[in-house]
Write a structure and sequence with these properties.
5-stranded mixed sheet, hydrolase, globular, 7-stranded mixed sheet, alpha+beta, about 30% strand, endonuclease
Length: about 290
């Protein structure tokens, strides 16, 4: 019975032969500059819905299914923030369906923010009704970008891995949106842990739906030595932040120059920002 239900869900959420996202291409994207610090941002944009109260989850819930005239204005305001960063991780984007006015929101934000490279990962394909996606925006040309389906009872969660620098010692950025279920998070972070095991310079960023202490002490990430933001870096809900659900976790080899929760309430999550510098001696390899 379980296998039959799962097969039906897979057919709805991941139609065979359906689109798997889109990418800008790299021909016009500048080379990675290893002599600069990198400004990072992660932002769950809630498909462009401006939520500023719990009751909006009810009164504005229809915007998750139907277009709204103010959605692109909200995206334009988000783009004003994004233009200040070098690499951006986006969660809860729409890849171009009825609710977004058939606009690929990852591409829209990249172009509005003047960021040359974008990559959209389509995780849950509901056809014309919704194109649930993650997004990567980058001012630098990545060495390569791969997308990964994260394990879970219900399919539809994913991660993007972008590598910069050289093949033998890259800077590795993992962009993700984890499930709400703690059991699913265990499996998903176990999968991520295996992907990053052989790399020295790693950044995990995204909506992880858990506090940093839990992530780094009660999941497979405890086997890493990743450094979190302070416990006070609360990002949810945006109008009264009480929970630290959004994170940028970095390897000790990366110098954190600045980190903050950005007071920019355009979604039900606040964005998280961090400036990191590559380790001393890394530049000599280029």
């Amino acid at each position: 019975m379980y296998k039959h239900i799962r097969k039906q869900l897979n057919g709805i959420l991941r139609p065979a032969g359906g689109p798997r996202g889109a990418c800008s291409g790299t021909e016009h994207v500048p080379e990675f500059e290893a002599n600069r610090h990198i400004r990072l941002l992660t932002f769950n944009i809630q498909v462009g819905i401006n939520t500023s109260s719990y009751h909006h989850y009810f009164t504005r819930s229809w915007q998750h299914f139907l277009p709204h005239r103010n959605r692109n204005e909200n995206l334009d305001r988000i783009a004003l923030l994004l233009r200040n960063y070098d690499v951006v991780a986006l969660q809860e984007c729409d890849g171009g369906s009825l609710r977004s006015g058939y606009i690929n929101q990852v591409q829209y934000l990249a172009e509005a923010a003047g960021i040359p490279y974008w990559y959209q990962q389509l995780n849950r394909n509901l056809g014309q009704f919704a194109q649930h996606s993650n997004g990567l925006l980058s001012r630098y040309r990545p060495l390569d970008v791969t997308e990964h389906k994260l394990p879970g009872l219900i399919p539809g969660r994913g991660a993007i891995i972008a590598r910069y620098g050289t093949e033998h010692d890259p800077l590795v950025l993992v962009l993700m949106h984890l499930s709400l279920s703690k059991a699913a998070q265990q499996r998903q972070l176990g999968y991520i842990r295996e992907l990053i095991a052989d790399y020295q310079h790693v950044v995990l960023m995204g909506d992880m739906n858990a506090h940093a202490e839990q992530l780094l002490t009660q999941t497979p990430l405890k086997e890493t030595n990743l450094v979190p933001l302070p416990d006070t870096a609360h990002s949810f809900p945006s109008w009264r932040p009480e929970k630290a659900l959004d994170h940028i976790l970095v390897s000790p080899s990366l110098e954190i120059r600045r980190s903050e929760v950005v007071s920019y309430p355009m979604s039900d999550h606040l964005p998280i920002a961090m400036d990191v510098a590559l380790p001393e001696g890394y530049l000599e390899k280029f």
